[in-house]
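Q: What would this chain look like folded?
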Amino acid sequence: MTQVLGGFAALELHPNILAAVIATGYEEPSAIQLQSIPVILAGHDMIGQAQTGTGKTAAFALPILSRIDPAKKEPQALILAPTRELALQVATAFETYAKQMPGLNVIAVYGGAPMGPQLKAIRNGAQVVVATPGRLVDHLRRDEKVLSTIQHLVLDEADEMLKLGFMDDLEVIFKAMPETRQSVLFSATLPHSIRAIAEKHLRNPKHVKIETKTQTVTAIEQAHLLVHADQKHSAVLRLLEVEEFDALIAFVRTKQATLDLAAALEAKGYKAAALNGDIAQNQRERVIESLKDGRLDIVVATDVAARGLDVPRITHVMNVDMPYDPESYVHRIGRTGRAGRTGRALLLVTPRERRMLQVIERVTGQKVAEVRLPDAAAVLTARIKKLTSSLAPLVADAETTHGDLLDRLTADIGCSPRALAAALLRKATNGQALTLAEVEREQPLVPNSAPRERSERSGERSERGDVRERRAPMPLADGRARCRTALGARDGIAAKNLLGAILNEGGLAREAIGRIQVRDSFSLVELPEDGLERLLTKLKDTRVAGKQLKLRRYRED
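A: My prediction, written as structure tokens:
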């Protein structure tokens, strides 16, 4: 704990913010936090060059929250993010760090959700507004004074915002805020367009640049499972049926979640216990000792409660809830695979968390393979295997010690030895389903069908809420050609990803690109016929979501 206090306390954050940081489990400031927090606290404008996954959200959230006055019921900080997913992620982080600041409210503003409640929350004095540019401009059309009290502005992932064509929206937003505001810009790269924004809208900005270091966890086998949030407990129970583990630590985000999951595991016969910040030190020590000596097999913990936990028996780490950042993920799964041993880490991913999964893969430099929920046949095989393992040691001398009793019982009951053995098995297995038909009936989830986001079912909604994808092919406008890529919704691709890549790499104006249709296994893009082959050559090595775009002219004959 001394390290925590020493590291973050030295940055002169507000005491309540510092307390929230400690409760979250951060141990030392990351490089971007160490350099950015003093600059932002001092009120300077700043340009931060850092990749997602370096801890940059805390780098601007902590100092900005320290400078906000919760007593003033008006918007004081605006954070702009390029996508709905990032906006929600940033808003969640602000709420976490502001937990010990009574009266401080955070609102996420994005397309695809009703505008009324968003505007009402802003007018009611939410001090922190996290928004996507398109939807925020829609609000400004209704109320041009909505940003008139903003004192702190953050552009998060500014390069992505420009790739997605938000330059005009940004200009509208800049004009709606006081010129005296503090402006902070974060971007992975600093192309000319970003530098132009900085020169025009930032005042003598300080520069902070962080090189991303790849964190490797090669001794640990990693896998993820796509699952809806309300299916997590059922998914955990199903996975544990087939995973061969000695001891396991399951990570969740909240104290209540540790209690709920531990209770669900105990109800299924697992030796499990919760470990959270409310548990007294002597009880915590008993839990860890029980895990070490085999009286417990599973501990359900929060990040902060698991600090310092080192148990050689741990063969598996299960991330039931997604960690807040890649560093926390690396720290969590490091509980297994120690001292040259191998380990296995499982991560449950909800549809909205796919972006963070990609960040984790980039920061660790490793692919986290996808696994499917075990089907009924796999569960039945695992159950019979466990039953066999438990009975095998008992068979060796059973006939010698209990053979005479068996003969007497079969005679008294008037049944065969097979019938008596079956009855004893039924009692020993306590009603557990041990036929394929029975296991299929108790399946809580549909196996081998990953959840899909609404965008994949009904078309990706644009920033303003209109459906742009998955339309049926329509006649081409004059001077346009239809091109095809093998990347589609199943690759995590949305229309905005294709648009951003083509604008950025192809050097086209936004109006030069026609309709973009994303199907499950491919996508169609309308491009100018004039100079098409030259454009396709320029886009030859372009990658989207880590995969080659490989655009080709699409012939419909």
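The CA atoms of residues 233 and 261 lie 7 Å apart.
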